[in-house]
């Protein structure tokens, strides 16, 4: 036992690390990519669902306020709830890229249109 205890511990720690690496299964890049895609899909689903629910909640809240202060009965809630539903669907379609936003229709900063013809 001519080795110092610190060197002995370092050598044993190095061997232990190598043993752990050899027994641990390799995580392939494919599995990591699938996990990343899954996280991206989950984030997109949460974004779309929150935009849809927000439209409905805002419509219902505004309808409730209209009914409360104007005394219109359930009609304000019904009409604005339906409008909120439509706004939520439109927000989801815009976020998904199915419907063009107002900037894209006018040739705003989010478009690829070139102003080469001077119009």
TrEMBL record:
| Domain of life per record | Bacteria
Q: Membrane-spanning residues where?
A: 48-66, 72-93
- State a single Pfam family of this protein: ATPase_gene1
- Give the species: Sinorhizobium medicae
What GO biological process terms does the UniProt entry carry, in alphabetical order? Answer: proton transmembrane transport
The name under which this protein is listed is ATP synthase protein I
Q: Which family does it belong to?
A: Belongs to the bacterial AtpI family.
For this record, the Gene Ontology CC terms, alphabetical, are: proton-transporting ATP synthase complex
- The yes or no answer to whether the keyword Transmembrane is present is yes
Role according to the record? A possible function for this protein is to guide the assembly of the membrane sector of the ATPase enzyme complex.
Q: Which UniProt keywords apply?
A: Hydrogen ion transport, Ion transport, Membrane, Transmembrane, Transmembrane helix, Transport
């Amino acid at each position: 036992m001519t080795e110092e205890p610190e060197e002995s511990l370092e050598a044993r720690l190095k061997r232990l690390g190598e043993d752990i690496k050899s027994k641990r299964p390799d995580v392939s890049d494919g599995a990591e990519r699938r996990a990343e895609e899954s996280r991206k899909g989950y984030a997109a689903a949460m974004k779309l669902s929150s935009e849809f629910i927000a439209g409905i909640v805002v419509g219902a809240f505004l309808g409730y306020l209209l009914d409360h202060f104007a005394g219109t009965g359930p009609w304000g809630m019904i009409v604005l709830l339906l409008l909120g539903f439509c706004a939520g669907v439109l927000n989801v379609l815009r976020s998904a890229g199915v419907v063009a936003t107002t900037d894209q229709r006018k040739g705003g900063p989010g478009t690829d249109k070139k102003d080469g013809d001077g119009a």
